[in-house]
Structures are given as C-alpha cells and as structure tokens.
Amino acid sequence: MQDYRVGICDNDTGYVIGFMEFINMKEDIPLKISAFSKVNAISEYKRTKKLDLLLLDQNAEYEDSDLRVIRLTDNKELKDEYGYIYKYQSLYEISKEIIEMLNEGRQTINANSYVYGVYSPLGRSGKTNLARGICEYYQDSFYVGFEEYSGFYNQTYKGKRYREIYERFLYYLTGENVLILDTINEIYEETGIKAFVSLDYTDLKQIDKNHVRWLADLLQKNTGCKRIVFDIGTGVFSNLDIMLAMDKLFVPVLKDKNSVNKLDLFKNIMSEKRYAELEKKVNYVEVPRVDFGSRAMKDFIIQSGM
C-alpha cells in the first residue's frame, strides 16, 4: 500500500509533534505526517507539495476546496460524527480511521485507472515492446522509461538540453514537487509524445515506491492519462519494493532453458513472505515477437486483459 501524505495542525503543539513522530516511525502505517504550527503554512506547503488529507484543530479557520479536511476534537460526544476525529484515543485507531477515509476517496478517484509496471529478470523478453504497445493501444496512457539504457531515447529528446531536463525531472520527483508537471508539458510540446525516458540509471536509485506512486497519481489527475506504464530495467532500483507502487506488474517470459531457470529463481523470491503483497500483482506473459504498434500486439493486449 502506498504512503498517504497527511498534514496536522492543532493548537496543542505537543500533541502535533508527538503524533507526527509516532506515525512516521511506524513502517506498518502507510501514512507520512507533516506538522504545521499555523494554518497559513499549509497553503505555502501546498504550492509545491501534495497533501491527501488535513487534520485540523476544530476551532481553526481554514478553507481549501482541493483538500479534504478532518477536524480534531477533544469533545468525546463528536467522536462518531462525520468529519471529526476524537484526539485522545489510540493513535493506531486514529490512523486506521484516516486510512479508511483515504481509501474510500482513492476508489472513487482511480476508478478505471491503472498503474502498470513492466519488468522482467530476462533480457530480450519484449519488455519495452510490451510497455510501448500498451501505450500505443490505449491512447490515454503515459510511458515512463526507468531503464538502465533506453532504446527510446533518440526518438524523444536530442541534444545536450536533455541532461538539464532530466536532472530537473529527477529533482522534482524526489522532492514530490508539482512543478514536475511543467517539465512534463515542456517535453510533450517538444516531442508530441506523452512520455518521459530516463538517462542516467544510477540516479534512479534515489527513487522509492512512494515517489513512483506520487508521480502516477499526479499524472492521472493532471494529464488525462488513465494508464501510467513504467518500463523498468533490472538494475535500476535498489530493491523490488518499488514494484509495490504498481496496480499490476507484467513480467514477460521466455521458454528456453536458461530463461526458465532464471524465472524459477525470480518466482522463488516472489514466494517469500515479505513479497506476498507484490506476488499478487504479478502477471506472467509471453510477448509476441511483433512490432509494438501492430495489430497482433493489440490483439495480445486485449486477450491478456491489460
């Protein structure tokens, strides 16, 4: 499950700091808390970063049509009232309430929207061909190339200016800064392609699953693209946890002996308890040796339920 970004602002600063420190230290709670001492700091924060929900003192005045606000109350009689959370209960119970609220919202926002990962422990498996094929078939898709060396590079950006664009993109991504949309629009205006292709894969090791999911959500909400397709190289990320940001993970396979042996090892890793959630997302597919824009590829995508 992705980490949600939640702000908290209350007149009891000790409570606010204690709440933030407790939740942020718990790896089993998918929330990241940002604390604010004054309400005007919230708007300033939102200029460059995202909040999924705000916990706000019941007596504070703050209006924001783009942000869901839940009131923190010390009045136990309001405990079960809609829009309120009783402050003086278990922080685990509070976090559970918050997650349930946010999951309800996500089901509405992301209906019929998908975040796909295409990854394979095998070389020459048709991984990039499939990722591009999905984007070719579904025109409301956005391709993100996270590979060691992208074969898509020369078809999108040329010249030294690509380095500047790439570094800006990476800086905004790791900082979860909404200004990344300006860079994406700049790329689209120059190339006519709804895509971003990485160049220096060593820098991508800075990226974790929260960055990936944040980017996917941002793209879905602001570009009109329902499918975000990540083309993932085997040596890009520091661990497989990055795949947890995906709704589905497509793993192209091959049937020769060496490939089968490698795939068996990958499946053994997936069967480990720590990857139980990820294993549920995996779909093994044998990609046809056809052009990504061909009728045969489109038929394959339809038949595979992508």
Short account of what is shown:
The chain has 306 residues and is α/β, with parallel strands linked by helices.
Number of helices: 10
The main pleated sheet reads as:
6 strands, parallel
Which structural class is indicated by helix and strand composition?
alpha/beta
The number of strands is: 11
Fraction of helical residues: 25-40%
What low-confidence regions span 5 or more consecutive residues with pLDDT below 50?
107-111
Per DSSP, what share of the residues sits in E-state strands of 2 or more residues? 15-25%
SSE series: EHEHEEEHEHEHHEHEEHHEH
Mean pLDDT: 86
Rg value: 21 Å
Strand order of the largest sheet: 8-7-9-6-10-11
C-alpha end-to-end distance: 21 Å
Shape: globular
